[in-house]
Amino acid sequence: MFGETTPLAFAKMHGAGNDFVVIDSRARAGGVVTAELARAIGDRHRGVGFDQLAELRASDTADLDLDFWNSDGSRAGACGNATRCVAASVMNARGTDRLTIRTARGLLHAERRGAQVWVNMGAPILDWQGVPLAREVDLLHLPLPGGPVAVGMGNPHCIHFVPDADAAPVALRGPEVEHDPLFPEATNVEFASLIAPDHLRLRVWERGTGITLACGSGACATAVAAHQRGLTGRRVVIEADGGRLEVDWREDGVWLTGPVAHVYDGLFTPAFLADGA
To answer: Is 73 left (phi over 0), alpha (psi -120 to 50) or beta?
Structure first.
């Protein structure tokens, strides 16, 4: 795919411990990542490892296009923390405070406010067909153990409100709910507990990946679900396993911010690419 002598540059980044490999393919027509290559890179023993892979591509309708891959080689429709990381990196390179990013979720807007980069993840999807679910049910009280809430944020999310998120059986219930027949495209699974009317504790099982230290779209979905349930206001702090995120559900969409870290840059060797591709 890449030839015998062409390495591929990448960056390793994370947002609150939610870690990513970022590949800039804007100079390559059509992109370079395949399901096979995503699985190879996502192997934490034989590759680099990531929760999601983000591939930048040239865009005619935005500052850039952004595609997401899970570590099992499946595609992700949205990834809030990776979007924030990429937005911060591109803003720094361009010397700008605003950016438009087109994803499978649609056209997203990012802006720098002081030291923080915020991304508008769009309006939540609050109808059963849009999430999507397999049939019409009450989205605020799904017919599953614990009566969780369904919210779409580009990815489907199933949010459980529990007394203590730290004691939630994430590793047990996560994969069970991920593949429940109610979710024809599988789902991310969240377990949240209330700390205060503007503060939630959150643990996450991401479809196609497993337990992650944070999830941006999951934090957005959880904030929306909590407000719908009457537990919080529209702006909340989310305490994930890997750090603190902030969500602000405004009239124009659900905004997300949190820490961003650029860990290192590297090159995939031609030999690795030949095996992985």
So the answer is: left
Compute the 3-state secondary structure of the chain and give helix, strand, coil in percent, each to the nearest 5.
Answer: 20, 40, 40
Estimate the crossing angle of helix 80-94 against helix 216-228, to 10 degrees: 120
- Domain match, 108 and 40 both: yes
User: Whose CA is closest to 260, among 85, 18, 83, 82?
Assistant: 85
Domain range enclosing 245: 149-251
Q: Is 248 exposed, middle or buried (0-12, 13-18, 19+ CB in 10 A)?
A: middle
Closest of 43, 44, 48 to residue 21, by C-alpha = 48
C-alpha pair distances (Å), 277 with each of 1, 202, 225: 7, 36, 40
Q: How far apart are CA 211 and CA 74, in angstroms?
A: 16
The pLDDT, as a whole number, for residue 77 is: 87
Please, what's the b/e burial string for 190-201 (b: 16 or more CB within 10 A of its CB; e: otherwise)? bbbbbeeeeebb
DSSP 124: P
pLDDT digits (tens, 9 = 90+) for 18-39: 999 999 999 988 889 999 999 9
Q: Report yes or no on 140 lying in a domain.
A: no
Query: In which band, very low, low, confident or very high, does the pLDDT at 275 lie, cut at 50, 70 and 90?
Result: confident
DSSP 8-state assignment for residue 270: H
pLDDT digits over 149-176, tens only?
999 999 999 999 999 999 999 999 999 9
* Inside any domain, residue 137: no
Distance of alpha carbon 265 from alpha carbon 263, whole angstroms: 7
Output the six-digit token pair for 80.
């809030």
pLDDT digits (tens, 9 = 90+) for 202-242: 999 999 999 999 999 999 999 999 999 999 999 999 999 99
CATH number, domain containing residue 15: 3.10.310.10
Looking at the annotation, which residues are catalytic? 79, 215
Give me the residue label for tokens 């407000």.
227
